[in-house]
Amino acid sequence: MSGSLVVVGLGPGSSDLLTPAAAKVLHAATDLVGYGPYLDRIEEIIPGQRRHASGNRVEIDRARQALTLAAEGGKVAVVSGGDPGVFAMAAAIFEAVEDGNPEWRELDIRVEPGITAMLAAAAEVGAPLGADFCAVSLSDNLKSWETIERRLRAAAEGDFVISLYNPASKARPHQLGQAFDLLKAIKSPLTIVLFVRKVATSEASVIVTTLAEADPALADMRTLVIIGAAATRLIPRKGLRPWIYTPRVEQEVAR
Ligand code: SAH
Question: How far is the CA of 118 from the centre of ligand 1 (A)?
Answer without folding.
Answer: 8
